[in-house]
């Protein structure tokens, strides 16, 4: 992602999907703390479903990156998440990351998969300086080119007309992931797992795939059955009875695990259906991969994977999201 952002800095100018900021957004008691709410509402409310970026540490001139300043102390993403979720509804999906650009440490907000417009203020907010009302409940903003304005009747009409039409349903899914380290059967081998929730009032059929780049010098990924087999073999090593007489460990019939030249590819087995998973209204499906993705060994702190979800309800192609599993 940082390579893509470097190209954006080098070749693109501010627009409806790109904003440059010289310093981080302030929180706490700072009088400008509500600025981030207005900017996020404006970017998320633009009718384009492009990803939106706010790149921090950039000094712009005429919309182009001219100079840079280091962001030495990076605010925790969780603090921004809490502040924005407390004041804007519905939830705006975003991430906040740091990266190196030339000799500078910069940061960026990536605002993505936000089709559930309009994104509006939940409650009245006052300025900390003079206690005057700065934003009212129901206020919303929209980014037009490089400027921001308040939503007007025409904007609301357009948003609700779009809702009546068929929509891309990526925003109906919430994705969470984690690393399990407490599976007793695996004797400490970490497990990579994904959880998906359908937050809408309509069922959705999906197919899901996880791609993990192969790097045998740093880590190895194996099927659960393979790790259990190794543990069992080690347990009965030297036994006169032999391993095969004790246990027969079979791979999962619900998961397909492929080791390709450059990737591990893990998929759900569709069996007799086109899509292997149906998520009913407001349903959360935990442990999508049934604890079948196991880290055999790892010499690094993080394993990066690409999650790909396909559905006939995704009108603009599959949902793709980068996952970073802490080990």
Explain how this protein is built.
The protein has 327 residues and is of the alpha+beta class. It has 2 domains: 2-164, Methyltransferase, Cobalt-precorrin-4 Transmethylase, Domain 2; 170-326, Immunoglobulins (Immunoglobulin-like). The chain has 5 helices and 23 strands. The chain has helices spanning 2-11, 35-45, 77-87, 153-164, 224-235, and strands spanning 18-21, 52-56, 58-61, 64-68, 88-89, 94-101, 104-111, 120-121, 125-126, 133-135, 141-144, 147-150, 173-180, 191-198, 204-213, 219-223, 255-259, 263-268, 277-279, 284-285, 293-298, 302-310, 319-326. A hairpin with a 2-residue loop joins strand 6 and strand 7. The radius of gyration is 24 Å and the shape is globular. The model has no long low-confidence stretch (mean pLDDT 91).
Which features does this protein show?
six-stranded antiparallel beta sheet; four-stranded mixed beta sheet; 37% strand
């Amino acid at each position: 992602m940082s390579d893509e952002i470097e190209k954006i800095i080098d070749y693109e100018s501010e627009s409806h999907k790109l904003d440059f900021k010289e310093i981080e957004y302030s929180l706490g008691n700072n009088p400008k703390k509500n600025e981030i709410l207005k900017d996020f509402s404006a970017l998320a409310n633009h009718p384009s479903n492009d990803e939106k970026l706010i790149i921090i540490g950039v000094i712009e001139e005429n919309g182009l990156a001219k100079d840079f300043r280091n962001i030495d102390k990076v605010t925790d993403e969780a603090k921004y998440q809490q502040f924005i979720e407390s004041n804007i509804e519905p939830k705006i999906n975003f991430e906040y990351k740091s990266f190196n650009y030339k000799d500078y440490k910069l940061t960026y907000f990536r605002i993505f998969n936000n089709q559930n417009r309009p994104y509006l203020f939940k409650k009245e907010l006052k300025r900390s300086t003079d206690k005057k009302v700065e934003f009212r409940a129901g206020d919303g903003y929209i980014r037009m080119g490089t400027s921001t304005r308040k939503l007007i009747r025409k904007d609301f009409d357009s948003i609700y007309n779009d809702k009546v039409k068929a929509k891309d349903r990526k925003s109906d899914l919430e994705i969470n992931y984690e690393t399990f380290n407490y599976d007793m059967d695996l004797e400490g081998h970490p497990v990579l797992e994904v959880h998906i929730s359908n937050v809408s009032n309509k069922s959705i059929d999906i197919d899901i795939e996880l791609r993990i780049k192969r790097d045998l010098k740093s880590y190895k990924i194996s099927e659960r059955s393979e790790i259990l087999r190794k543990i069992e073999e080690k347990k009965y090593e030297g036994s006169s009875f032999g391993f095969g007489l004790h246990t027969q460990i079979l791979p999962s019939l619900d998961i397909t695990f492929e080791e390709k030249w450059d990737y591990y590819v893990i998929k759900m087995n569709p069996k007799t259906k086109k899509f292997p998973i149906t998520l009913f209204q407001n349903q959360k499906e935990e442990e999508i991969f049934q604890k079948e993705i196991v880290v055999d060994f790892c010499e690094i702190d993080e394993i990066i994977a690409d999650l790909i979800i396909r559905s006939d309800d995704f009108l603009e192609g599959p949902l793709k999201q980068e996952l970073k599993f802490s080990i």
